Structures are given as structure tokens and as C-alpha cells.
């Protein structure tokens, strides 16, 4: 694992995006992820592009929506055990940022 990838995974929003895509096992757009996580769309879009640049998520398709292009992403976490371990070990820390109740509480 490169230091650049570790740096990318050091952000809680990026880890939350990865968890969402991995748990849903679905292809989601930044708009759908934004609504699910509760993060502003421009912020989420930035983090999704950063993850895609590092190959932790990949774009599966695009579609034209009201004059812009909507991108859809899928997780590649299952292909990287170390990334999956990082997500698992930081889940309890990150849940406080995205909900009022910790997971499993």
C-alpha cells in the first residue's frame, strides 16, 4: 500500500463513501451517496473523484442529467484486504461523525 493511498484513506468522508459502496454492493452516484451519508454534494463529489483516482472505487457508467454528466461508482474494497481492514478498524471512530448513535449501540 502506497503512502498516497494511506493519505487518501485518512479522511473520514472517504472511508464513509467506501463503507457505503461496499455495504450496499451497488453502483451509486455522488448524489445518491450524498443523500445517504448526509454530506454536501460538492464535498462528496470531490472525495469520490479522489478515491477513483487512487483506484479504491471505479466509475462504472455515466448518464446525461439536465445538461451535466452524472457518474456512478462501485467499490473495489473486496479486491484489497488491507483497505477492508482499515475500514473495519475505523468504523466506530467514524460513526460519530455521521450519526448521533454509534453503530451497534
Task: Provide a short characterization of the protein structure.
The chain has 105 residues and is an alpha+beta fold. The protein contains five helices and two strands, in the order ααααββα. It has one domain (3-98): Arc Repressor Mutant, subunit A (Orthogonal Bundle), CATH 1.10.10.
Please describe what this structure looks like:
The C terminus is likely disordered. The termini are far apart. The protein contains five helices and two strands; from the N terminus they run H-H-H-H-E-E-H. A two-stranded antiparallel ribbon has the order 1-2. It has 105 residues and is of the alpha+beta class. Helices cover 55% and strands 16% of the residues. It is globular and about 40 Å long.
- Kindly report the CATH topology: Arc Repressor Mutant, subunit A
Please state the average pLDDT score.
81
Taken together, the total number of domains comes to 1
Q: State the distance separating the first and last CA atoms.
A: 32 Å
Biggest β-sheet strands, sense, barrel: 2 strands, antiparallel
- Overall 3D shape: globular
Amino acid at each position: 500500500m502506497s503512502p498516497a493511498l494511506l493519505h487518501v484513506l485518512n479522511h473520514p468522508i472517504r472511508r464513509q463513501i467506501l463503507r457505503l459502496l461496499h455495504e450496499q454492493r451497488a453502483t451509486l452516484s455522488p448524489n445518491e451517496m450524498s443523500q445517504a451519508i448526509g454530506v454536501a454534494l460538492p464535498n462528496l463529489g470531490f472525495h469520490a473523484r479522489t478515491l477513483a483516482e487512487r483506484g479504491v472505487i471505479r466509475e462504472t457508467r455515466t448518464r446525461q442529467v439536465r445538461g451535466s454528466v452524472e457518474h456512478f461508482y462501485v467499490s473495489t474494497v473486496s479486491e484489497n484486504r488491507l483497505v477492508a481492514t482499515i475500514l473495519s478498524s475505523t468504523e466506530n471512530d467514524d460513526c460519530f461523525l455521521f450519526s448521533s448513535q454509534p453503530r451497534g449501540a
